[in-house]
Each structure stands twice: as structure tokens, then as C-alpha cells.
Amino acid sequence: MGYFRFSNLLYSFIIATILSEYYHNHCVLAAEPTASSCQDKCGSLSVKYPLGTGYGCGSPRFYPYVSCSSTGDQLLFATHTGSYPITSVFYDTSTLIVTPPRMSNCSSMQASSNLGLDWPSPFQLGPSVFVLLSCAPPTSSHAVCDTTNDHLCASMHTCAAITSLGLSLFAPTDTCCVYTPANFNTKGELDLQALKCAGYTSVLSLGDLPMDPNRWEYGIALKYTQMGFDQYDVAIKCEACEKSDGICGYAPPQDDFVCVCSSGMNSSSDCYNPVPVPFWSNGSPGSPNRIPTSYAFHVCVLLFSILVVLL
Fold first, then answer.
1. Which of 191, 224, 257 is the last residue before a domain boundary?
2. pLDDT number for residue 292
3. Residue limits of the Wall-associated receptor kinase C-terminal domain (predicted)?
4. Is 245 part of any domain?
5. What is the rounded CA–CA span in Å between residue 203 and residue 219?
6. How many CA atoms lie less than 13 Å away from 260 in the CB half-sphere?
7. Which of 224, 243, 275 is the last residue of a domain?
8. Residue 232: which pLDDT band, with cuts at 50, 70 and 90?
9. Comparison of pLDDT for 54 and 226, the residue scoring more
């Protein structure tokens, strides 16, 4: 008698656990917002895995750090210090170029706000040279300043826009600091207040005329890495998906790989030979494979009732 009672209790516990997991994934998490659709372009930039245009697109590790603007014309890089336009993406070297609106260049200079990176993100500073502007003199006493590159400061001080920072043309370079290699503080920020500087610029290349800052290429290079979700098998699936004109994404909450096809049918393989996304994956951005809301509601009510009886 006791054995059968124990077996019934064990059976009820197993069933309740399975139903509870299903209820959590499809009744609780189904209420979370999903992206409308994934695109392979944002503005003039091509968007490929691991980057994505929104929630459920690309790799889950890259959202919300990279997304397309609500107007669809600008790819953005977001951190705790702000949102910055992405002007170039080099997939072969895993590099982004961002241009913060408050960053100076030879034609436009202004006081800048701090620039930061989020530590959990897959991004880190790439090979660019930071030049700190309108600093408390003398910058030669600052340990972070590379005095061997003072010629960059002298060149920046030939820009007419330098007067916007309260300096005169051809001002002494003791108010300028070439900060390379740049290193952010414990908050992940270029803290201009702590460095006692008003603004900054970042130089990617000196171009064909190294002494003419009007010809320099400005921007901040960010390198990214792929880990975790971005394993070898996912990379293979994504390559096949993109070759079939699909867009690589993921299906919350388990973040299973999804190939988003233009036909409207999302696949767990590619768009040539679509394999429907498993019902337990909760679908994906704009996916018709998602359980209809009315049906899901009734299923959830039924599951909840069974759970109450079992528990």
C-alpha cells in the first residue's frame, strides 16, 4: 500500500515538474516582448551574424549592445554611457567603428562626455589612438600621456575648431595628451573629468598626409569576440542559413538557433530545406510558428489547473 502511494507521489512530482517547466517557458515567458523582424541591412551597413538588428536577431550575446535604430537607417552601439552610431563593420577582423556625436575631429570640436564599455559585453577597445584635448597643463606630468607623439597634438592645434575648446590656434601642446594604448577605468569608462580634460578625439589612420588632421580618419575601433552560444555547430548552421538568404537569429527563452526566412517560415536549419522550429522554442522574431495567443492562453489555464491539483 505504501509502495503504491509513494509511486503515485513520485509520478505526480515528475508530471508536475514537466508541466511547471512548460508553463514557465510558454505561459510566463511568452508574455515577454519579441522583435518584429530581423533585417540583413541597417541603413547603408550590411548586418551579419553575430550582429543583429534587434531582439532575437544575430547572437543573443550582442543584444542590446548592437541594434538598428527605430527609423531603420542607423546601426547603433549602446553602452551605459550612451548610444553611438556605427559607421563601419569589418566582419573579417571582427571590428566595429563607432563615432560618438560628442567626439571631436579637426572640423568640429566640443566638450565631450565620458565614453564607456559594458564589461559583460563581447567588445573591447581596438587599435585606435586617443588624443585628449584642452587638458589641465602640463600634460607631460601625466603618466598616461605619450609625449613621443606630441606631433599629433601640434597638428590638432592647427585646426580652426580648436577655439571652440577655449584654446587659440597653434596653442602649446601642454594642454593635449596622446593617450595610447588607452585604458578605461574600473567603471569601463574614459573618465575625462578624472583626467582633467574637456574633450577627446580618436584617430584610426593618419591617411596619406600625416601632418594634415583634416585628412585623418577619425573613429573608435572596437573588437568583438564570440563565445558560448557562438559555438562551431552554430557557426556552421549560420553559414548555411545566410547562403540560403536567411538571417541568423535565436528563439528565446532557450536561445536556440533560428534561421529567419523571407518566406515567413522560420527554420532550425536553413531556408532551402526548412526544418520547423521545435514547439518548445517559443518561436522567434515575427515567427508564425509561435503558438497562437488564444490557444496558448487556454493551454496555460489548463496547465495551471492541473498543477494546482497535483501540488
1. 224
2. 39
3. 231-263
4. yes
5. 6
6. 26
7. 224
8. low
9. 54
